[in-house]
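User: I'm writing a tutorial on reading structure tokens. Could you give me a worked example: one chain, its sequence, then its tokens, then a sentence or two explaining what the tokens reveal?
Assistant: Sure. Here is the example chain.
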Amino acid sequence: MLNWRRDPGYEQRVIRHEQRMRQLRSETEQLRQENRRLAELESRMDALLRNADSCSQTPPATDSN
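And here are its predicted structure tokens:
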């Protein structure tokens, strides 16, 4: 028979691991939501800049001759 002993901290490590995995999944989802929000804001900013560029008129270059 093998010299097997119960690991007294095993269950606690398993519980801590499961809690950490839940925390990481939650943080991952929060980061995904934040990334979606930032992508939307970036898209809006790009649209505003394109609109501003198309509305701005640069005066034609004139020769001072």
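What the tokens reveal: The longest helix spans residues 10-55. Residues 17 and 43 are 39 Å apart (CA to CA).
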